[in-house]
Amino acid sequence: MQMTLAKALKVRNRVQQKIRHVAGDIQRGNSVLKGAEREDDVSDLMTQYDKLVDYLVNLKSAIFKANEDIQSEIFRLSELKAKVAFLGGIDTTHGKQVNRYSLGGDEVAEFEAVFRKKEIDDLVGRLEQMIDASQEALDHFNHSTLIDIDSPSTVGL
């Protein structure tokens, strides 16, 4: 069947969630007190787990192939977001301040910041505009690109 890349990304998340759920059921249900009734057939769950993993591998491969032409934009978006996070961690303290490390609390220290708060805020604003444009381009691509993949119903989704 064909589905948009946007839908495939949502299905991928659901498959990953289902794999975690089935794996937990296997781990909890594998060993029970002798003579106790098992809630689930753990052998069947392992078969289901294997089918889900196979489906996920095929789905990820189809997504990877579809993203080939726009992969650099995906990387760019990731790095722009990382830079915004990095900039948010830069200390911009500048000028005379009460020394926060002083035991007495009255000691004044003078700080000198290369990058001032306004400069960082302005740069973050420009980066966020670039992030928005990049995300819009990716959203458009994801909603207009089709991939061929088996229906998720083949693995119980």
Describe the structure.
The strands form two sheets. A two-stranded antiparallel ribbon has the order 1-4. The protein has a two-stranded antiparallel ribbon with strand order 2-3. With 157 residues, the chain is mainly alpha-helical. The protein has helices spanning 5-29, 42-66, 71-88, 117-144, and strands spanning 2-4, 95-98, 108-111, 146-148. α1 packs antiparallel against α2 and α3 (71-88) packs antiparallel against α4 (117-144). It is flat and about 70 Å long. It has two domains: 1-66, no CATH class; 70-147, no CATH class.
Low-confidence runs: none
Number of helices: 4
Radius of gyration: 26 Å
Number of strands: 4
Strand content: 5-15%
- Count of all domains: 2
C-alpha end-to-end distance: 14 Å
How would you characterize the largest beta sheet? 2 strands, antiparallel
- Coarse morphology: flat
**Portion of residues within helices:** 55-70%
SSE sequence, one letter per element: EHHHEEHE
Strand order of the largest sheet: 1-4
Mean pLDDT: 93
Quaternary? single chain
Structural category is mainly alpha
List the helices and strands and how they pair.
Blueprint: E1 2-4, H1 5-29, H2 42-66, H3 71-88, E2 95-98, E3 108-111, H4 117-144, E4 146-148
Antiparallel strand pairs: 1-4, 2-3
Helix pairs in contact: 1-2, 3-4
